[in-house]
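Homework-ish question, so no full write-ups if that breaks the rules, but can someone show me the predicted structure for this set?
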Amino acid sequence: MVTRAALCCSALALAACDPGFENPTEVIDLRPLAISAEPPEQVLDVDLTMPPNANDLLRQLRPVEICALAGDPLVRSLTSTLTVCVEGRDARCDASRPRIVLASGVVTPDPETAIPRPQLCARLEPDANLLAVLLGAIDADPLSGFSGIDLLIEWTLAADGAPAVYAGKRVRFAARVPERRTANQNPTVLEFTASVSGAEARMQPLPLGRCVDQLEPLTITAGDRVTITPVEPEGLRETYVVPTFDGGVREFTETIEYQWYTSAGTFSTAVSGGRRDAFGNLPGLASAFRSHAAKDVLAAEDAAIWIVQRDERLGVAWFESCVRVLPAP
Amino acid sequence: MSPSRLATVALACVTMSVAAVRADPPAAGAPAGQVTAAPELLQAAAPEYPPAALAAGKQATVKVRIHLDDAGVVTSVDVLEPVGDGFDEAAVAAALQYVFSPAEIDGKPAAIAVETAINFVIEEAPIEDPVPEFLTRARAAADDGPPSHAGRMREPISLQGEVVERGTRSKLAGVTVSIAELGMDAITDERGQFFFHGLPPGAYRVLAYDDRFDRLERPVTLAPREQLEVRLWMRPRGANPYETIVEGAREVLEVTRRTLQRQQLTSVPGTFGDPIRVLQSLPGVARTPFGLGLLLIRGSNPDDTGVFIDGHEVPLLFHFLGGPSILNAEMIESIDLYPGGFPARFGRHHGGAVAIETRSPATDGVHGSADVDFLDSGGYLRAPLHKDLMVSVAGRRSYIDVFLPLFLPDNGQVVVPVYYDYQGRLDWDRKSQGKLSLTVLGSADRLDVLSDNPDDEDSLNLNSEIRFFRVIGNYRRPLTRTLTLSLSPSYGRDSVTFSGGQAEAAGPFTSVDITQTALSYRMRVSGKLGSSGLPARLVLDTGLDLLSRVTRYAALVPIADDVRDGNQIDIPPELTLRGAEELALGYYVDLGVDVTPALRVVPSLRFDGYNLDGNLRGTVDPRLTARLALGQGWTGKAYVGRFSQPPQPEAFDPQFGNPSIGVEHGTHFGAGAEWKPEKLWSFDAELYYIRRDDVVIFENDFVQNDDGTFSRVNFTNEGFRNAYGVEILIRREMSERAYGWLSYTFSKSGQRRGDGALTATAFDQPHTLNAVASWKPGGGFELGARFRLTSGRPETPVLGGNFDVDAGDYNAVRGDVRSRRTSTFHQLDLRAERTWLFNTWSAGLYLDVQNVYNNPNVEATRYDYRFRDSAKVTSVPILPTLGVRGQW
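A: Not a homework solution, just the prediction itself:
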C-alpha cells in the first residue's frame, strides 16, 4: 500500500514537467470539434428483467438528428463518414458487431460562398437497422442495459492526401429505471458576453456566426484580450436520477462545461465550467481569447471562434463566432 | 651504546581478526560452526630473514593461513599469496613455531584456521654492545602473562598504553607492539591495551604493527622508576575511517544470499554514500525508472518483495522520488538480499526478500558522525549509558524545499519531496541472561508545491504525506550451548495521506487517509543441534511469526462509486470509511542437514494461516535447497520452493474489493554455481525460473445478483506472471586498495490475465549490467565509478488519437501492450572522496557525480493532447553533489 502510494507521489511530481506541446485551443489543421445528437438520450419503457422485445423497442424509438463539426484552416474537400455502431476499443466501432453507415461523401467548397462549413449532418432512423445495433449493444453490455445503452457515432474525416482523423460521440437509450427518470436535453445558452481589455476596454454581446457570415464581427487590436462568458438560461442544469447497483436511486444536478477553440490565437483555458476540481475550486465559465502577438499581426485577420457546450449526460451544442484582429497602431 | 654498527631486523607482525578466523577443516561450501572462542597467539617466533633477499634489500609481506588443531597446535601453514625470494619458506618456518590457545567452536575445542600476514621489514637498528644482563633476562624469559604483557609479570609495569584507530578512536585489539631495542613484543588485548614490565631507563622506539594499519613508530624515554603511559594512534591502511571490516560467520541456510557490508559500501558512486542503494546494483535487481526507490527483483512487482528490518517488515526502504534510504548508514550492521529461494523465516512474499540488521552500538565511548550535502543532512551518535547499556541515535532531514524556491523562474511551480527519518537503538547486555534491544525507526515523506505565487501554493497544497514508524524489541539468549532463542515483538503504524482543499476552506474538499497498524511477534530458535547420536550435523532455524494488521481507509471523494461512468457527475464529496483486518500466523522451519561434509541439504516448510476480514485462508509452502562443495573453490547450488503472499487489504474489502479473493502463490526454481578461486575474488552464476499463480488482478466487470442488483467484481485471482533468467556476479572483495564487482542479469518477465496472451510486465528488463569499482590511490583519496547499462522500459505504442466528443478530449489508440521499449539506458557515475584523519576525528569531502556524460536516458514518452506529438521524459541529468562528513 505504502509502496504504491510512494510510486503515485513520484509520478505526480514528475508529471509536472512541461514538454512544450502545441496549444490545444488553436486549430492549426483539420480537427473534429463536436458532434451533436438531437435528442441525446431516449428513455424507453421496457422491462429489463425480460428479453428485449423488438416491436416494443421499435415503437418507442425516435429519430435522431446528428451533426458533426470540424475546424479546418484550409478551404478544401473533405471526405467524411458517419457510422452508428457498438463501441469497441479506443472509442472506435466494434467491427464484429452490427453498424449503420449514416452518411458518407465528400464535402466540397460551396460555389456560392466558396467557404463551406466543414460539417456533416444525418438522421438516424428508428428502423430495423438501429434495432440490430441496439440489440448488439445490449448483448455486449455486462449490465444488460441496466444503466443505459450507449451507441457510438463514429465520424471519420480526411482531407485529400492526409490521414483520416476520428471522433466519437454517444447517444443513449435507457430504460425508465427508476420510474421518474427523464431523458436528457441538449444544453444551450442565452448569449455570450465579450469583455475586451486593452486600449479600448468595453463589454458587449458576442455576435454569433461564422466570420464569412458576419458583416461586423467583434473587432480588437492585436494584443487585446477578450474574455468571453456564457450567459446561461434559467434551469439549464437539469436534475436527474439514476439507478444504483444495489437497487437504489441517486439524484444529481448536471454541470455544464465549455470547450474553446480558435483558428488564430489562443484561449486562456481550453475547458471552462464543469465540476469542482480536487481542491474544491468551482471553475469559472469564462475563457479569454488572445490573438497572435502584435508583431505577428501585420494585416487584419479574422479569428474563427468555436465554443462547444456539454452537459455531463451526452448533451452537446456548439456556437460559432468571429473576432477580427487589427494590427496594433 | 654504539650507534656505529647497524644490523637488520626481521620483524614479524602477526595479527588476527575475526575476519581471519575460520573453522577448520574449511571444506569449501561446508557450513561452519559458531566461533565461541578465538585462538590467541601465545607465542610468536621471529622469522629468519632470507639472506639473499636481505642482501638485495628486498622486503615483503607474506599472507599465510595457519591451521591449528583442537589443542591450538599449528599443524600446517599455507601461503596464500606466494611472494618468492625465500620469504614464503621463512614465513612458514616461523609460523610453524607459533603457539596458540585452543579455539572453541560452539563451546568446544576445535580445529581452526587463522589467516595473518608476516611482514619482512629491513630496519636499521643500533646494536647495543654488550647486551646487558637485564635484557638477556627479558629476552630469555618466556612471558609468563597474557600476550598483552611483555616481560616478567612480577616486575612493575614500566610502559603501558593503548592502541586506537585514528579518526574513530576505536580500541584496536591484536596489534603487535614492540620495543625494537629490547626485542620485546606485546599484543594488545580486546581493550587495545598493552603492558611492558621491568624496562630499564633509556630511550626506546615503540613500534606498532598490524596489517590493517600503517606501521607506527614512536620514541619514548623512560626515566628511572618511571611508569610511562602512551596512546598510539594508528592510521588505517588505504582505507577510510568510515569503514571497518566485519564479516560474520553465519550459518548458511539459503542458496543465494548477497550480503552487503555497510562499511564496504558507503563509497559506491551514484549512491550518495547510501549502502542500501547499492542493492540496486546487484544481480537480479532491475533498475527502477527515475531512480525511484523500488525493489524490482527478478521480474517481480515492488509489493512482491519483503523488506525486513531486524526481522520485521517495513513498508518502505527509500524516500520517494529517488531519495536516500530510510536508515542512516551507521545504524546498519548488514544488508542481505535474497533474490529467490529464500529461507522459510521470510514469509508472506513470493518475490524476494531484503533483510537488514541494525547495529548494536559498541561500548567504546562516545562516537558520532555527521553528513551534509546539497539535498539533506544527517547525523549519528552512540554512547554507553552504563557499562552494559548502550544507545545510538540517528536522523536525517532534507532541505531541497528550502533552496529550490530560490531558483524558481517567474510563475514557476514545482512539486518537491520533503523527507526526514530517525532511528534509535538501546542495547542492554545482560551477559549470561541474554541481550535486550529496543529499536525505534521511522520516516516521513511529503510532497510540497513550491510556487513563486503564495496564493497558488496555498490553493494547490497537496497535503500528501507518507509516514511510518516501528518499535522493535528483541530479547536474545542462549537456549542451549548451541541454540539461541530470540523473542521479538514489534509495533508499527503506516499512514498515507492525500488531501486537497481551498486555501480558505475549513477542511479538505477531497482526501484519502489510509492508516495501517501492525503488531507482530516473532519467536525464533536457531543454531546447531547437538551432534551426539545424530547421524549428520544439523542446523535448525525455526519459529513462529504472528502478524496482526488493521488497515483503515477514510476517503472524502466527490464520486459515486456505484454509478457507472459517473466520473463526470457533480456530487458533493462523501466520506467513505472502510477497514480491513488481517491476522496471520506462520510457523516455519529450516533444517540444514550436512548429508556429507560437502553436501548440505536444507528442507524447509512454512505454514501460514490467514484471517482476512473474517475469511480464512491457509497455505503450506515446502522448500528444498542444497549446496554441494565441489572442490577447488567450486560450489554447486539448487533450490525449488513454494512461496505465498496474501492480497493487499483493499483487495479483500467487501465493498471495493472481493471477499472471496485468495492468496497468491509463487514457485521458485533455481540452480547455479559459485567459484571462489581465492580470498578476494568470487564468481556466482544462477539460472532461475519463477511462476506466479493466482495473482490478484483488478477486473472492471459486474456480476448480477439473485435479486437483480449488480455487484462489481473488482478483484480476481486470475492473473499469472512468470520470470526466468540468469544472473552472473564477479566480485572482488574489499581490500586495502580496491573493491568492485561486475554483475549481469538476463531476465524476462511476463504476465497474462486468464487465458489471455502473455505480455511483458511493466518492469520487465531483459538486460541489466552493473559495474562498480573503487580504488584508493593513497593520500586519503578514494575514487570510484559505477556504470550501468540496461534495457529500456517496456512501453505500449500509441498509434494515434480519437476525439471523444462527450469528454472533450482524445483517447489514445494503442498498439500491442508493451510491445516496444524506450531506448537503452546507460549511465556513468563517478565519485571522489578525500579523507583527512586526525587523532580524535576525521573529515571527508566527497563529490558524487551522477550521469557524468549527461546521457538523456528515456524513461517514458509523453504525448500531446491528441497523441500526435510526443516528447521523451528523461531521467536525472548530470547531477553533481558535494558533501562533507565527519566522524569522531
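Now go work out the reasoning yourself. Hint: Chain B has a mean pLDDT of 81.
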